[in-house]
Amino acid sequence: MAEKLTSRETLLELAEKLAAERKQIKQTITLCAGTGCRASGCMKVHEALQEGVKKRSWEKKVEVRTSGCHGLCELGPLLVTQPGNVFYKAVKPEDVDAILDETVDKGEIVEKLLYEDRNTGEKIAHWHDIPFYKKQKRLVFGANGEINPNIIEDFFAVGGYQALAKALNSMQPDEIVEQIKKSGLRGRGGGGFLTGLKWESCRKAHGATKYILCNADEGDPGAFMDRSILEGNPHCVIEGMAIAALAIGGSDGYVYVRNEYPLAVKNLSIALDQAREYGLLGENILGSGFNFDIKINRGGGAFVCGESTALMASIEGKPGEPRAKFVHTAEKGLWDKPTNLNNVETYANVPWIVENGADEYAAIGTEGSKGTKIFSLVGKVNNTGLIEVPMGITLREIVYDIGGGIPGNKKFKAVQTGGPAGGCLPEEKLDLPVDFDNLWEAGTIMGSGGLIVMDEDNCMVDVAKYFTKFLMEESCGKCTPCREGLRQLYNILVDISEGRGQEGDIELMEGLSEAISAGSICGLGQAAPIPLLSTIRYFRDEYEAHIKDAKCPAGVCKELISYTIKDNCNGCGMCTRVCPTNAIAGEKKEIHIIDQSKCIKCGACYGACKFDAIFKG
Amino acid sequence: MSNLVPVTIDGKKIEVPYDTTVLDAAKKLGIFIPTLCHNENVKPYGVCRICLVEMRQGKRSKLVPSCVFPLRKETEIQTNSAKVQRVRKWILQLMLARSPNEKVICDLAAKYGVEKTHPRFSPHWKEETGDRYIDESSCILCGQCVRVCEEIVGVGAIAFEGRGAHRRVTTPFDVQSNVCIACGACEYVCPTKCIGFVDHGATRELKRWHMNTKMIACSKCGDYFLPEPLAKLYEEKMNLPAEIYQICPNCRDSVFK
Predict the structure, then answer these.
(1) Which of A62, A105, A186, B219 is deepest in the core (most CB within 10 A)?
(2) The complex's ipTM?
(3) Which of A314, A473, A480, A482 has the highest number of chain B CBs within 10 A, making it the mutation to test binding with B?
(4) Is A562-616 a domain of CATH 3.30.70.20?
(5) Is the pTM of this model over 0.95?
(6) Cβ distance B227 to B177 under 8 Å?
(7) Choosing among A318, A323, A479, A491, which should be mutated to test the B contact, i.e. which has the most B CBs within 10 A?
(8) For the domain A372-455, what is the CATH code?
């Protein structure tokens, strides 16, 4: 049982002691143990590392540490050795001996585990030289790779909870609110509302009980920013919430987290217990007389529960459905009490601002959007993973410099920002500096930070259909425009993708979209037409090709394409062997023929043909 | 905060108490706003969206549902602006696609110039649920039955189930409820009368809730007049002579005078 910290001084003393202790350890191996690397088998590597260290009796000189997500999930399991900052990717248990004997013992580099630049073929040894990391600014996410999320002392050693101590010791609540306002921090969950203003209105609201909620119901397909923060550095969220509670006058906190994030729930629970043990949560925090504690509420997996009023209804034990919020939740939220709800990433920014000052924070970013933003970069891009970049970076830098471009030399087509209700931006928008306002003007949203890269093989009608279906299925069904409107939009998109589109469908969908946006209760319905409208805005020709010519230019919509064999077929027979429906016939060394009535358009022949003799279109 | 708030609705001015809804303020001015899910006996719900009006506060303007929008500062409301008309027509077309045969919807649509739904809109889907075939197209999901059952009757026998287009009102587990008292309040408030309420004499049926409830026959005239579970609830809640539940309202006068 740890002894409770009773003042700012005791915390600083402990941090200093821990940092000094860490310096004693000559060498460390930090292994990423985020969900991505776990899926790639990092825990087996961890076992092998521990065994290897034990076998060599190096326990006193080498520390093997697991940490949160390092970001470059594509190449996991990842590890970094210190000193030297050597970065190894795709590490397997059998590589452990080489790492220990070469790198740790002799300071030599194991070539085959190094990152290799796809364009130049150059091998890069140090993590900060890797292009993926070079352009990032890891304000919030930086500590993720340095600390074990299950060891609070690791967090102390990198200055953890010192912002809370500072706020408790030397700042008035109004001053904290003022700092957050001045920093220009905007809500990272999607709304982009000024966090300081939100805090101010909740601070001013009347009521003895005020709730501090954290939205960790990250439901966007392909997005995992919040998960990785909670998994890798839960204490920074706890610290941010405690500072918010102090500023607003809140006494009870809830983290609403998806039950589908078991590691996040586990690491957060451990972190809460440890924070309580040290007296950083609970009663009389750091001897200041301030009381605040946090409970975890696990969500049942409804996308709409990420909406503020639905989330609060769900915590109350009611069905997770949104309600009208003309009376703001800052005034009447959870159990009709004043409530402040921020996203995980928003809270994670708070300690940095309090620690370093609003001016320093506001120096990063653009006019209207300050600080950094974490994106999950996925789709048709070489380096998929989690990135933290300053606001104002261009999409081109994200996709090509950090993301390493499009695999297979394919042509870039679009990038979808902002999750399922976000829009798709085309190539001519690649030089757009990314911030809340620019994205909105371009017809899309920042959302919570999903970035899905698409190439020439993606059909934009199909993309709109996919996201409209997702939102239709996740709509709670409470209000008419969202429930009935999205269903009609989806049915029309299905028709278009299957060759039954009609003249006037585009205008019809645009008109109906206005009613859905203007008429729905909550953000889900209000934003739901964005994928459709943005693809019509930038890729109208693709819709027209589907409707007027019954053609899918990208070759995705099955009903609109067929596979035929060209004259250059040399009759090798590979296609007949892979065809699952025996639709292809032909003599050896003769041109083969596809029986269209049997063909199910699976594309197996197209993929198998080595002579480019199969035509798709 | 009991001060008065100045409001202009369709050019007419009025001052209303803080937090009055637009719908109530319009009523005071004699201005009609169509509603479907609204029922003044239960809490406003704001889901049918047929009562949308255009709200302007300073430079800000947007559509808001008049039944739940609270007036808190000077506001200008237009109940029939071009945007309101446009969006209302779409909503009516969506409702007609779902419920093409419901008179209340057809009449309302006709009133606002919508004769039928858009030809590209598909009808409500029909689904097989276990061994029951359920046609949900007659229910417009206004939720009046659910709210009355919970807030007025106080038993909460029915609730919404399913998400998105699969949303519907039903009893827990889709079987005969053991808390429903067969009072029929749901049928009374239902705008489309889609509960399937039938008095068969000795039993009362509420098809949508899978209810077949025994009725009590009047000890004087023999007419069936009261569902058994309703009588039981009355007995528990009210201190009245037991025989009152055996005699129908028509015969009561002669007995209890």
Answers:
(1) A186
(2) 0.93
(3) A480
(4) yes
(5) no
(6) no
(7) A479
(8) 3.10.20.600
Contact flag A511-B90 (C-beta cutoff 8 Å): yes
**A160-362 CATH pick, 1.20.1290.10, 3.40.50.11540, 3.30.565.10, 3.40.30.10:** 3.40.50.11540
- Which is it for strands A412-417 and A252-258: parallel, antiparallel or unpaired? unpaired
Q: How far is CA A161 from CA A10, A158, A242, A269, in A?
A: 12, 9, 10, 17
One of 3.40.50.720, 3.90.1150.10, 3.40.190.170, 3.40.30.10 is the CATH number of A8-145, namely: 3.40.30.10
Q: What is the pLDDT of residue B214?
A: 96
Is A519 part of the contact surface with chain B (CB cutoff 8 Å)? yes
Residue of A nearest to B99 (CA): A484
Rounded to a whole number of angstroms, the distance from the CA of A395 to the nearest CA of chain B is 32
Fold observed for domain A460-548: de novo design (two linked rop proteins) (1.20.1440)
β-pairing verdict for A372-379 and A450-455? parallel
Q: Find, in chain B, the residue whose alpha carbon is nearest to that of A489.
A: B121
Contact B164 A324 (CB under 8 A): no
Q: Is B90 on the interface with A (CB under 8 A)?
A: yes
Note the pLDDT tens digit of each residue in A566-599.
999 999 999 999 999 999 999 989 999 999 999 9
- pLDDT tens-digit map of A291-332: 999 999 999 889 999 999 999 999 999 999 999 999 999 999
Residue in B closest to A321 by C-alpha: B163
Q: Which amino acid is at A591?
A: I
The identity of residue A520, as a single letter, is S
Q: pLDDT tens-digit profile of B7-61? A: 999 999 999 999 999 999 999 999 999 999 999 999 999 999 999 999 999 888 9
